[in-house]
Amino acid sequence: MNRIYVKGDTKRWLTAITALTLLVSLSNCGGGGGTTPPTSGLTINGTVTVPTGTPRSRSLTGAALPNASIRAVLAFEPGTVLAQSTTDANGRYVLTIPPNYAGRDILIIAEKTVNNQRVRVSALLPALPAQGYAGANLDAYTTLATEEILRYARQQNLTALSPNGVASVVDRVREVIRNRDSLSLVVGQTLPENIGDGLQDETIGDPVQQCVLDQAQNLPPSTGDVATAKQITQMLRDYSTTWIDRSNNEALRFAALVREQEQIIEEDIIQPLEAFRGRGLDFVIRLLGLEEPGGSDPHDSLNGLPPGRYREVLRNGRYVLERSGDSPNNRTWYVESGALECTVTTANPLEEFILGPDAGRVSFSLRKDGDPSVQHDGSFEVTQRDSQNRVTQLRVQFSLRDSGLSQPIQFNGVANTTPRDDGSFRTVNMSGTLQSQYADLNVTNLVYDTYPVSERVKQVSAARVQATLKTEENPTLELENLNVAFADGDPPDKHITQITVQSLDFSGTETTLLLRNLNAQFQRVGGEPQLARLQANAEYRTPNDTLIGRITMQWENPAGGNPLEWETIPLEQFPRGNFEFDGNLTPRIGRPARAYFNIVSEPNFSTPRVRLQLRLDLGTARLEGGFTGNLRIVDGCVDPERMFQTTTIQMSHTPSNFRVELLYNDTNQTFTGAIKKPDGTSVAQIGKASALGLPDFGDAYIVRYNDNTFETVNSLLRLED
Question: Do strands 92-97 and 42-47 pair parallel, antiparallel, or not at all (unpaired)?
Answer without folding.
Answer: antiparallel
